[in-house]
Structure formats: structure tokens, C-alpha cells
């Protein structure tokens, strides 16, 4: 979910992506292109994934061929979309989350459109209700994950809260992502800001730094190289049994294991979670706005919402959408995640990241 290299890169690596990559849309594409079929182009971060049959059903019903332009992690993709908003690369942008939303809205990235099915979105995920510039698509929780085997072998109880992470017994065990370049890293920072407030989060990070937290650039590096509990981390001989990832990471470790274990090899520290919501929007100056509107409607459909969990390892926002048993069993949503008002994030995000960088990285 966002400057994101989410758990869904596991799905990408196993060929689960059911969409077509493209270098962008053109006016010819929007009008029919050389093949005569209309197309609609989705611009997204690298974690976009959907099942082939679900995309095919939309294409058959709508008459639009879906093209997908993956443009790096979410922060990079959002910044590039803003820079190209007068001549956008596509029609719809997916993957801006609540940590970066104000940046997109303040720069006029989207034009208003109230997608069909918006009335079925759970109330807590609706935002920008007056202007309808973005459509909520999915949600997830950024949380510290732990390696069950490591803690069992060392006869140590896994941490449960932010407070636990600064205790001496967890020294040199945690790896997190750079809050300036990674969505989960930023989400973890925002979680601490929500927990400890304006006057306390910096002091908390001083303690966390003194307790040996390791910072790397991306989720992929943290989870698949440094973390001892993931399949990738085991191969890379990662030595950190705690990592900032997602509450939905454990089911990915089960689903893509061969053979599949009865229990997830990783767990979640429930008191370290921050709720993330991802949005999509119709790009300003989109060459095919009608196709874009159809695609946004589709992203709130029951078929797409129920397809997301095992493709992008996120939760649906549509009321009544079901999640697979493995997902609900091994990756339930956090019961009491930290949250921040979008206006609070907008007012403080850049300064918080600047202060965090000076405090933790220097």
C-alpha cells in the first residue's frame, strides 16, 4: 500500500498479476488505437495486482481494454503523477494513501467523480465527501511483525506494543523502513506520532534509536532481506526478528509456502499498528475520462473488492465483501489501530519526516 512494496510483491513474483503493463496511454488508445479496441490506462505503484478473469470480465462488460503503468513505489508514483498532471500518463491513478493524500489533492491531481458503489463504502473510509476527488479502494494495517521461531528459540516473549520496542530485551532486533522513502516507514512514524503526540514522538524515537533500530530504504529490503521470519529473509540470512510490515503479511507466508503450514510462521504485534487507506481517482486532463469512470466503478464492485485480498494483501472497503479464510485466519485487521486525521497529517507530515530524518539518520 504505498511508497509501497507490499506483501503483494510475493504475488507478483509468482506471476499472479493479471493485468497488462504499458508505457502509458495515448489519444489513439483512448479512441480505439490501431486494434480498434478502446483502452483505459491505470497508473499505479508497483504493488497493483488483480486476477486475469476479474479484469477480463470488466473488459468484456465495459468494452475497454485495461492497460497498467506501474511507476515505482507510491511516493515516487504520486510525485511523477503530479509533475505530469497537465499531460497525464493515464486516466486513473491508484495507490495514493492517507499518508500522502493531501499532497495529491493540494496539487490538483484529480477531477471530481463519485464512483458507483460509493454508498457501499464503509463510512470510516470515506473522505473528501464534498468534492469526490478520490475513491477509497482498500485498507490495511502497518504493524511490527515478529519471527515466531526466533522468539521461541530464544525463550523471549514477542513485543506487543510501541512501549515494548524500546525495552532492553528487544535491543538490535527491529528493522524499519525510511519514513522519507517508504509508505510503511512513514506509516510507522505516524503511528508513533498518534501514540505519543507532538511532544512525545521524538523522545520515543531517540529511545528506539538507542535500542538499535535499523533503518533501510524499502519494504522489500526490510522484509525480504533483513527479516529472519520471511521466506525471502531466511534465504538472505536476515538476522532481525522484528520488522515493520503489514498485519496481512502472515497470510502471505502461508499462502505462498509449499507445502502450506497449518499456522503462520510470523505474528503481529497488535499494539504497533497504524491504519492505512488507499484511494484511486480520475486524473485531471485524462484522455479517456469515461473509461476512467468505468474503471473506478469497477474497483468498488463486489468482484474486484473480493479479488484484492489474495492479490494485493489488503482488506476491501466495500460493506459485505468477503475475504478468503486464510486471510481472515492469519491476517485479521488490527482491533484498535492508531489513526490520524488527514488534516493533521497534511499539516505535519513534511516537518515530521524532516525531524525524523535529522533525529534517526544523522
Describe the fold and architecture.
The protein is of the alpha/beta class and 362 residues long. It is 38% helix and 18% strand. It has 17 helices and twelve strands. Strands 1, 2, 3, 4, 5, 6, 7, 8, 9, 10, 11 and 12 form a twelve-stranded mixed β-sheet that branches. Helix 3 (52-62) links the parallel strand 2 and strand 3 (64-70). The protein starts with 7 loop residues before the first helix and ends with a helix.
% residues in beta strands: 15-25%
From the alpha-carbon coordinates, what is the Rg to the nearest angstrom? Answer: 20 Å
Got a strand count?
12
Shape: globular
Give, in order, the helices and strands: HEHEHEHEHEEHHEHHEHHEHEEHHHEHH
Number of helices: 17
Which properties best describe this structure?
362 residues, alpha/beta, twelve-stranded mixed beta sheet, 17 helices, globular, disordered N terminus
In short:
With 362 residues, the protein is of the alpha/beta class.
Indicate the topology.
Elements: H1 8-13, E1 20-21, H2 27-31, E2 38-44, H3 52-62, E3 64-70, H4 74-83, E4 92-97, H5 101-106, E5 110-111, E6 135-147, H6 148-153, H7 162-165, E7 174-177, H8 183-196, H9 201-210, E8 214-216, H10 219-226, H11 231-235, E9 242-246, H12 249-255, E10 266-268, E11 274-283, H13 289-299, H14 302-307, H15 309-312, E12 315-316, H16 325-330, H17 342-361
Parallel strand pairs: 1-3, 2-3, 2-4, 7-8, 7-9
Antiparallel strand pairs: 4-11, 5-11, 6-9, 6-10, 6-11, 6-12
Amino acid at each position: 500500500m504505498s511508497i509501497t512494496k507490499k506483501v503483494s510483491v510475493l504475488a507478483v513474483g509468482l506471476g499472479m498479476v493479471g493485468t497488462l503493463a504499458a508505457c502509458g496511454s495515448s489519444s489513439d488508445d483512448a479512441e480505439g488505437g490501431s486494434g480498434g479496441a478502446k483502452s483505459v490506462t491505470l497508473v499505479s505503484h508497483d504493488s497493483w495486482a488483480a486476477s486475469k478473469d476479474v479484469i477480463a470480465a470488466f473488459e468484456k462488460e465495459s468494452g475497454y481494454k485495461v492497460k497498467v503503468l506501474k511507476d515505482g513505489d507510491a511516493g515516487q508514483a504520486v510525485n511523477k503523477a503530479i509533475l505530469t498532471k497537465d499531460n497525464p500518463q493515464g486516466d486513473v491513478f491508484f495507490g495514493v494513501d492517507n499518508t500522502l493524500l493531501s499532497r495529491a489533492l493540494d496539487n490538483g491531481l484529480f477531477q471530481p467523480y463519485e464512483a458507483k458503489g460509493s454508498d457501499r463504502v464503509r463510512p470510516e473510509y470515506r473522505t473528501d465527501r464534498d468534492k469526490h476527488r478520490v475513491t477509497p479502494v482498500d485498507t490495511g494495517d502497518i504493524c511490527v511483525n515478529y519471527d515466531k521461531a526466533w522468539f521461541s528459540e530464544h525463550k523471549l516473549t514477542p513485543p506487543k506494543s510501541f512501549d515494548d520496542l524500546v525495552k532492553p530485551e528487544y535491543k538490535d532486533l527491529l528493522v524499519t523502513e525510511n519514513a522519507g522513502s517508504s509508505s510503511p516507514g512513514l506509516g510507522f512514524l505516524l503511528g508513533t506520532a498518534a501514540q505519543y503526540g507532538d511532544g512525545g514522538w521524538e523522545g520515543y524515537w531517540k529511545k528506539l534509536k538507542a535500542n538499535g533500530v535499523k533503518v533501510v530504504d524499502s519494504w522489500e529490503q526490510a522484509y525480504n532481506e533483513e527479516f529472519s521470519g520471511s521466506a525471502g529473509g531466511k534465504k538472505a540470512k536476515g538476522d532481525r526478528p522484528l520488522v515493520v510490515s503489514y498485519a496481512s503479511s502472515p497470510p502471505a507466508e502461508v499462502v505462498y509456502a509449499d507445502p502450506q503450514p497449518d499456522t503462520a510462521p510470523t505474528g503481529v504485534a497488535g499494539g504497533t499498528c497504524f491504519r492505512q487507506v488507499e484511494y484511486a481517482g480520475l486524473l485531471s486532463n485524462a484522455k479517456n475520462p469515461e473509461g476512467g469512470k468505468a474503471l473506478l466503478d469497477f474497483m468498488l464492485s463486489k468482484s474486484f473488492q473480493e479479488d484484492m485480498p489474495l492479490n494485493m494483501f489488503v482488506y476491501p472497503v466495500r460493506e459485505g465483501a468477503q475475504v478468503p479464510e486464510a486471510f481472515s485466519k492469519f491476517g485479521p485487521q488490527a482491533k484498535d489501530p492508531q489513526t490520524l486525521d488527514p488534516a493533521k497529517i497534511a499539516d505535519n507530515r513534511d516537518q515530521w519526516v524532516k525531524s525524523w530524518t535529522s533525529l534517526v539518520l544523522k
